[in-house]
Design brief:
This is Multidrug resistance protein MdtH. The chain is built from 16 helices and no strands. The longest helix is centred in the N-terminal third of the chain and has 31 residues.
Length: 408
């Protein structure tokens, strides 16, 4: 895809879509300043065991994705912009605590606030963005551009973070917190109210009745089940990757290189890959292949290249990034096919909630296995690769069975 294609896609976006896509970049800039180095800080600076590191990181995941359903439903009832702003303020508190805390209880509290903030603003941001797309093709492109912007934040975030780490992790937390405080004021000023949002009311349907109808949606629950593998794979960037790097006696620069590799690939290839998928293999094959590549990327941890001990981690980043680019935009773009327009926040919330619980349980189990003396870590990497094969096949069959709707 050339520059003119990208500019044409950008011009088609509404003003609100442009603000949200730019915000996606800024969200990731602040997030990835801190999260890639959190596990290393907990393990090396504070002396926590891998199990406790997994608990802190897992709680952050659980409180975010595990509470997405509440955040998404609140967005449906109260308005998406309001939840986006509230989430930014709570994340300010969470990041400040992670930067300053020296004991486990405060670290857990900071992890909870950091995650809960994401549970408030992420489903509302996705639902707001889905409102801007007139059809499925445009929705695929909008979410691809959102992922492209996120990759930009993922590229710059670790670079800023590693620079601040040279001073102190405390400054990583405080600067990240200040960035989200600035985001609050920017979105309060420039993100328009979604006037066309059809807000739900308790008189129309009680929220637990809505949740019950969502759980009974068998097609949607099947889609979520296979997507759980993506959430588990993604969280290993913050648990398995730092642990394996540390076990091999390598510095945090390797983690930075991995994140830079995935970001550069995302920035340069996300939009071309999305256009290629729409013209050739289609969404079902792309999503199945994406899960296969993400799971298979962990086989790189079985390799040790003499003289270039970092090379297998770069290969891991390449395969992981290619899989994510195939899969992630389509996951977000396909959720609206299962629901009414007034339920977008709740459906995005449930999708991420179930994935968050799966990622939390997976992190606790993997963190425990990484802590067991004498346990061969190769079994973990082989298990993740097998999960990629099984979930990829299941996702392909699930998406093939969908009848694509033109509007939400």
């Amino acid at each position: 895809m050339n520059t003119s294609d990208f500019l044409n896609d950008w011009r088609r976006l509404s003003a609100a879509s442009r603000v949200l896509i730019i915000n996606s970049f800024t969200f990731n800039l602040g997030f990835y300043m801190l999260l890639p180095y959190l596990a290393d800080h907990l393990q090396r600076s504070l002396g926590l065991s891998p199990w406790y590191v997994g608990l802190v990181i897992g709680l952050r995941v659980l409180s975010q994705q595990g509470l997405f359903l509440i955040g998404g439903t609140l967005g449906d009832y109260l308005g998406y912009k309001r939840l986006i702003l509230l989430g930014c303020l709570i994340r300010v508190l969470g990041f400040a605590l992670l930067g300053l805390a020296q004991n486990l209880p405060l670290l857990l509290l900071g992890a909870f606030f950091t995650g809960f903030a994401g549970a408030l603003f992420t489903p509302s941001s996705n639902a707001y963005l889905a409102y801007q797309a007139p059809d499925q093709v445009q929705r695929n492109r909008i979410f691809a551009m959102q992922n492209w912007a996120r990759e930009g934040g993922l590229l710059l975030g670790p670079l800023v973070g590693v620079s601040l780490m040279a001073v102190s992790f405390m400054w990583v937390g405080l600067v990240s917190a200040l960035l989200f405080l600035a985001l609050f004021f920017i979105q309060w000023r420039f993100l328009p109210e979604l006037s066309e949002q059809v807000k739900r009311s308790s008189a129309e349907q009680r929220f637990w009745q809505q949740w019950s109808s969502m759980v009974k949606n068998k097609r949607f629950m099947g889609f979520i089940l296979y997507a759980c593998a993506f959430h588990l794979f993604f969280q290993q960037l913050y648990l398995s990757l730092p642990n394996e790097v540390s076990n091999r006696g390598l510095g945090t620069y390797v983690i930075t290189w991995v994140f830079m590799t995935t970001s550069i690939l995302g920035i340069t290839l996300q939009m071309p890959i999305s256009h290629w998928v729409s013209r050739t293999i289609g969404s079902a094959k792309a999503m199945g292949l994406g899960l296969l590549l993400m799971g298979g990327s962990f086989l790189c941890f079985l390799i040790n290249v003499t003289g270039w001990p970092w090379l297998n981690f770069i290969a891991y980043g390449v395969l992981f990034s290619l899989g994510s680019m195939l899969l992630l935009p389509l996951l977000g773009a396909y959720v609206p096919l299962f629901c009414d327009k007034s339920e977008l926040g709740s459906y995005y919330g449930l999708y991420s909630c179930v994935g968050g619980v799966a990622a939390f349980l997976g992190n606790v189990i993997i963190g425990w296995l990484l802590s067991v003396n004498g346990f061969n870590h190769q079994w973990i990497w082989l298990g993740l690769a097998l999960l990629g094969v099984l979930s990829g096949m299941g996702m392909y069959r699930q998406v093939c069975g969908l009848s694509t709707k033109e509007t939400i």
